[in-house]
Amino acid sequence: MSPFTKPFGTVPATASGKIEPFDIHVEEQKLKDFKELLHLSPVAKPTYENQEAQKEREFGITRDWLIEAKRVWLEEFDWRKEEHELNEYPHFKATITDDDDDGQSHTLHFVALFSSKKDAIPIVRSHGWPCTFAEFLPVLALLRTKYTPQTLPYHIIVPSLPGYTFSSAPPLDRDWTIASSARLIHALMLQLGFGSGYIAQGGDIGAAISRVLAATYPECKAVHLNYSQMFTPDDADSIPLTDAEKKGLQRYDEFNVTGNAYGRMHGTRPSTIGHILASSPLALLSWIAEKYLTWASPNYPISLSVILREVSLYWFTECFATSIYPYREDFGKSGKEKGYFHGQKGLFVDKAMGYSWFPWELGPMPVGWVERTGRLEWVGVHGEGGHFPALERPEVLLGDLEGFVGSVWK
C-alpha cells in the first residue's frame, strides 16, 4: 500500500517540492550477511566485570545478557515482521535544497500522521541518540486509536535526523552541527506548507534541535521538551528545589562520573568508534543496548524486542558513524565553554516553552533551572519515567504534549 493511501498518509495540499512515499525494505543479501556476521561474532570470555552478579550493570553489559540477546536476535527476531509493522505508518522522503549551504541537496526521511482538518496544528518531533524515528511510534499508535484522519487535531511529523537511518548523511567536506540539522528540519516544515507556524517537541539531542528551532525561526511558535540538559545556573543557590529534584541532580552527578564515557568517545574519537561498531552487529548491540537498559526507569524497562528493532535499524542503514556528530559540540574543543548542552550555548527561548520532568532522566533538571533557559509556561512533573518517555510512558508524554499545545496555541 502506498503511504499516500494509508490512513493519515495524505500530504497537505499546501506542500511543495519533492516529497515521495517510502517503504522500508532491507535487501535479502544484507539480511543474510547480517545473520552470518552475528553468528560468527564472539562474546568475550568471563571476567569479574561482566558477570550477572553486577545487577546494576555498573560495568556495562553482562555476558549472560549478551549471550541470550544474541540467541534471540539470531533465532527469534523476525526483521520482515518488523518491516511490516513499521510500514503500517506513512513514511516519506523529502528532497530539500539547503539555501544556506550553497544549494546542497539533502534527503530527509520522516514518518507522519497528517490530518484532514484545515486548522490542524503542525508538530515536529525530533528524536535523539541512540533512538530513531521508531521511538515515537507508541505515541503515534495512541493517536491513531484516539483520532481519525478527519478528527486528528494535529499534523505529527517525525523526521529521521540527518545522518540517522533513512535520511542522508552529513556532507564529507565540511562540518555539521545540531544547528545544521535544525535548519534542514525547519526547511522540511516549510516544504510541507507549515510556514504560518508549527510547534517543536523533542528529547535528548532532539530537545537541543527543538530549542534551536524555537530560538532561531519565527515560524516555530512554541517548544515542548522532555529533556533540558544545561549547566548549573549562576543563581542556583537561590532557586528552591524539591526533594525529588535534589535526588535527580544526584543522579545527574553520578552519570557524569560513571556514565558519560560513551559520549566522550563519540565526541573526541568519532572515527575510531565508528569503525569499531561498523564491524560487528554484536558490538553495536552491546554499545547501544547498555543505554536502553540503564537510562530507562527500572519500573518501565525497555523490552529486548524494542532494543533489537532499534539496533537493527542502525545496522541495516549503516548509520552509527554518521549519527554521533552532535557529541563533538559537547565533548570536543567547543564543549569546554560554559553554556547549555548539545550546542545550545547561551540559547534563550523567548517563546512559549513546556517541560516534562521525569525522575529517572539522565539529567532531570529542576524546573526552576529550566526557567532560566526560556519562557516556561507549562510544566508536567511525573513520579515515574526515564530518558525514553515515548517508549516507557507514551500515554503520559502524549498527555503532556496535548496539554501544552492546548494551552499555548491560539
TrEMBL record:
Recorded GO molecular functions are:
epoxide hydrolase activity
Pfam assignment, any one: EHN
**Gene3D superfamilies according to UniProt:** alpha/beta hydrolase
InterPro entries attached here? AB_hydrolase_fold (IPR029058), Epoxide_hydro_N (IPR010497), Epoxide_hydrolase (IPR016292)
GO BP annotation list: epoxide metabolic process
Q: Which residues form the Epoxide hydrolase N-terminal domain?
A: 19-136
Cite the entry's keywords alphabetically. Answer: Hydrolase
| Active site annotation, chain numbering | D204 (nucleophile), Y327 (proton donor), H387 (proton acceptor)
Q: Which family does the entry's similarity section mention?
A: Belongs to the peptidase S33 family.
Q: What is this protein called?
A: Alpha/beta-hydrolase
- Organism of origin: Lentithecium fluviatile CBS 122367
Q: What is the lineage of its organism?
A: Eukaryota, Fungi, Dikarya, Ascomycota, Pezizomycotina
